[in-house]
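Can't attach files on this board, so I'm pasting raw text. These are the components:
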Amino acid sequence: MTHSIRIAGLNKTFGQGSKAQHALRDINLDIAPGEMVALIGASGSGKSTLLRHIAGLERGDRKSGQGLIEVHGREVQSNGRIQRGKRQQRADTSMIFQQFNLVSRLSVLTNVCLGLLGRIAEWRGSAGLFSKAEKIAAMEALDRVGMSRFAAQRASTLSGGQQQRVAIARTLVQSAKLILADEPIASLDPASSERVMRALAEINQSGITVIVSLHQVSYATRYCPRTLAMRDGEAVFDGESTALTPDFLTELYGEDSEELILGKKRTQDAGEEVYDHSNEVALATAG
Amino acid sequence: MSRTATADPRHLEPPRRELKQTVTYYLSWAAAFVVLAWAWGGAEMDPLLLLEDADNMSMFIEGFMPPDFTNYPNYLHDMLVTVQIAIWGTVLAVVLAVPFGVLSAENIAPWWIYQPVRRLMDAARAINEMVFAMLFVVAVGLGPFAGVLALFVHTTGILAKLFSEAVESIDPRPVEGIRATGAGRLQEVIFGVIPQVLPLWISYSLYRFESNVRSATVLGIVGAGGIGQPLYEMIRGFYYHETAAIMIIIVVSVSLLDIFSQRVRKMVI
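---
Top answer:
Structure tokens for the assembled complex are below.
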């Protein structure tokens, strides 16, 4: 298997006619097994949309006649059609979300066990009958992210960073070969962000391919050897993360680059923050 | 004030209501009064009658005094049957309302499923439990079982609607999180939807149980068992002392159940 992910000529348009928004424009991408790749760009640049296409949660444009996505040599979608057996595909690819997407009223352990749903018999999963061995495996996964002592607690009682680490444990139990992390640290404080990024990097060490979309370039350069930079749905840079100097970012993004370099300007000036926020909302509705 | 004044004070002025909004506001009040006046005539409202016939009223009320509890073991037994009817009527309804409620939620089922299911539930809800009781008495004979079936059908319609509204207001993100693990549709509902709506569902079910106890107290009038039967006989026979005793038993039991279900509801939420 030479590719973990192969994407050729992927386009995505939301809406029709004059209101059409190009969320993705002619994306071509090859990622080898075991890579850890950062996906950077401002809000609305298409990072999430790209990840959701790889996960098979979204379909590319049909008319473009291409839009091929392969994961582990198996076709996820082409020509705007998601392949059959998407459940198996989803089970092999696991996703981590900005808002963690845990079931808040269930215990931490149960949330982790839910990662097994795509692996075990439907009736057993539906009845929630997880075996002793599976529960032990879930505890081991929790231990790897330092969360095993919270196993009995409800997910809603945890902080954001802790919930995200539980979500990572869920992907471990799922034993996926590819992890897609969609803004996993965007709503976390710096200390929690570090811990979550470290957990992802450790998982990557064991040979699992990780793609992580990030808002801040500093995390990309520190944890990911390779970066794909996006702007308005286009891939504007694909290469070594060390090349992403502030000067180069300004060249790529112009004024928007401030948002990517730790958002320094926003915290300094309250008026600026209001402006930036409205800008973000506009971009979010556009993408 | 001139328009060229400094920018700040003008920015702080509260927004004015537009003319169109003002007109709509007063028109809707006018419409409300018209409806009330129109209904007054049809309902032959005449509060003065209460004053004119005050003597009759007070004699009528005196007739109830004092309540006659000599037959209380029978009344208590019938009250217990009433509660038992409500328990089974509610439980059967909850069991059916879970699938019907999920299937009539827009965010779970496609339109060609939720539309017919909703219409079916509308029908179950539209017809009063007394009407169903009369029909079931014909079908399964006199007695409490007819009452259970009547409450069951009517309550299923109500709970399915309430359950589906709870499902439609869930947070979709945990469901997507479960879908991303490769889980099936049923598993998305079991682990993503139900944990989110369970407290609300329990609360609704308890509320319907209280209402069903109240409804069950009159089912006996059409022969569907419970305390309604002796109550109706006493009223028809002008035994007002006994009627008063039965009504007191009903009030006390319903209040006790209200307090009980309040407690339970606090525990689950």
